Here is the input.
Amino acid sequence: MTSVMWFRRDLRVGDNPALLHALDDGPTLPLFVLDPALWGPAGLPRQAYLVESLRSLGRDVPLSVVHGDPVSQVVKAAKEVGASSVHVAADHGPYGRQRDEAVAEALEEAGIAFARTGSPYAVGPGRVVNGSGDPYKVYTPFSKAWAEHGWRDPVDPPDDPHWRHLEDTVDLPDVTLPDGLTLPPAGEAAALERWHTFLDHIEGYDDDRDKMGVDGTSRMSTYLKWGEIHPRTMLADLAPLRSDGSRVYRKELAWREFYADVLDARPETAREYLRPEYARMPYIDPDSSDSHFDAWRRGRTGFPIVDAGMRQLRATGWMHNRLRMIVASFLVKDLHLEWQHGARHFMHWLVDGDLASNQHGWQWTAGSGTDASPFFRVFNPTTQGKKFDPSGGYIRQWVEELSDLDEVPDPHEPSDKVRDLVGYPAAVVDHKAERQDALDRWESIRD
Here is the structure.
């Protein structure tokens, strides 16, 4: 008996039940398919990180990489090694679910079993439902039910595995990153190292997680995105901890699972409004002469905290979560652009670009998503900067023009004279006026 382990968003050996099930069936072919439908739309940061993660995985297992449509490539690989089964962790994304159904059908025609074991989540989407058997629409009751549901313990890595390999494989592509862009180290070992480092100071997470100039977040989102660590492993490490920081961090993991559950129940919301009435609100065309979309993308809006966040994104493929909310609010409510434009830009640049978390994080801020306090909450970027970056250190780090302490005494609100002196742009809009405009636009759809 021979099997195939088809890796996707589970690029690790430890705590991988699907891999163990594959090995239970016999010698196993570790397989990765470079799918043009996913590779093509991915931005360079995500492509480059994936390649490095696959190289890391390839040092732990003899990974065979093929290129093309998974429907044909998985069947072809399974036949080549004489496999009786193909094993995966279930994919609950809109594309992944359709792809897997097509692959399962093709395998069935070839007399090969298709086995789904686990998922990228502690509790698979669709498993946590309310008393009526429907998906939850609000985070708080979901998170309580999710915690009560519980999850399995982590599993050990395989012991004395026997591997198969393909004769014809492709080389991993070389990806050239834009100048100045650096990515975090990839792979399972890097994920575990980062996680254990964070656990050493998780007690301060509840106080530090919103402070932009402090290394107070876990930076685990990228590793979770690619399955280099499973949330079940993290939750097991968190279980004995009783600090406020560990409690709040568990809630953040629940947010990730909630958004996956929402997208599973409403797959169309990857592109469309969760609350359809918001599609009727008047927005500005990003290609129009009135649009400041390009200034937002380049970090040239003249609002220092917004520009710092957008420049950090371009330089690291990551952005602080508080900044994600600030720059999203600015795009939708100050620049009056639809959330999809910003979400698409994020998915292009974010190494941790997860469809469910990204799209529904944007909808939450845009007021059209699961937020119980919708559109009328408009972040004041200057106030937010002063509150969460009081020293201005974060702004000075990412906005080079404002980095000089002598020339720029207040990086939050540089004067017109200072802006001219250091070459920093004037504000593209008046926040107070645009806030009122945003509320007027919202009123227009409330009838």
Notes: The chain has three domains: 3-119, 121-153+188-265, 276-443. Residues 263 and 269 are 7 Å apart (CA to CA). The chain has 20 helices and five strands.
